[in-house]
Amino acid sequence: MTHRFFIPSAWLTPPTVTLQDETARQIQTVLRLRPGDEITVLDNSGLEWQVRLTGLRKNEVQGQVVSHQLARGEPRLQLTLYQGILKAQKFEWVLQKGTELGISRFVPTLCQRSVVGKADDVTGKQARWERIIREAAEQSGRGRLPRLEPALSLAAAIKAASQSTEPAPLLIMPWEEASNLTLKNVWAEVKPAAAGVFIGPEGGFTAAEADLAREAGVRLVTLGPRILRAETAALAVCAAIFYDMGEWVR
Fold first, then answer.
1. Where do the structural domains in the chain lie, given as residue ranges?
2. CATH for 4-70, among 3.40.50.2000, 2.40.240.20, 1.20.1250.20, 3.20.20.80?
3. What string of pLDDT tens digits covers the 250 residues of the chain?
4. Rounded to an integer, what distance in angstroms lies between the CA atom of residue 238 and that of residue 57?
5. ∠ at Cα 24 (23, 25), nearest 5°?
6. Using CA atoms, how far apart are residues 4 and 21, in angstroms rounded to an integer?
7. Which run of H or of E encompasses 139?
C-alpha cells in the first residue's frame, strides 16, 4: 500500500512538490524511502496526487507529480457527529474510527453528564485530536480531513444544527427512552445529502436534553433493547447510516 500524507496546499506546485517538516522527517528517517519510491499526497481538496520522490535533503524531500485523481474514500453523505465528550481514550477512539468510517465533521459536545464541565477544559486537546484524525484519514484513504469544531454546549450544538441550510441536515438523536421510531424508519423516509447524529456522554442524555432536541426538530430514535456504551452507539449508528446510503459498495 502506498504511503499517504496530507500536506499544506502550498507545498504542491505541479508538476513538483516539496515536502517539509514532520512529513519529510517521517519519509526519510521513519519509512526510509528513497528517490524513485512513490507516495500519495493529499491537499485536502478531494484529490490525491501520485508523487515519485526525486531528491532528499535535510528537512526536505522533493518529488515529481506522476498523476492525480479524485480520492475514492470520500462519502457522498456529509455526516456530522455531535459527540458528548467522553473520557480521553474513548473520545479519541471515536475520532479515529469515525474518520475511518467517513464522518465529515466532529463537534465535541458538552452535556449535563459530560465528564468535563466547560469548553475550556478541552481546548488544549485540539492539536492531539487533529493529529489522530489526520493519521486515520491517511490510513483509510480519505481525500479530505474531517473538520474538528470547537466544543459547544448541547443547546448551542442543537441550535446550530437545526439552523443549518447548506444543505439542511436530517438530525437524529438515539435515546434509550425513545420507544417507537427506529433508525430504519427514519432513513426509509428520506435519503438526505447531510445528516447530524447526536450521541450522549457516559450516562447518556437526560430527559430535559432529549426534550430540547425534540422541540428543535431532532428525531429521537431507539437502537433496540440493548443499552450501548456511548462510543459503541456513535460508531454503530454512523456505520448503519453509511451502509444504508450504499457506502459499503465499491
1. 4-70, 78-244
2. 2.40.240.20
3. 799 999 999 999 999 999 999 999 999 999 999 999 999 999 999 999 999 999 998 889 999 999 999 998 999 999 999 999 998 899 999 999 999 999 999 999 999 988 765 555 676 788 999 999 999 999 999 999 999 999 999 999 999 999 887 778 999 999 999 888 999 888 888 888 999 999 999 999 999 999 999 999 999 999 999 999 999 999 999 999 999 988 887 6
4. 43
5. 90
6. 16
7. helix 126-140
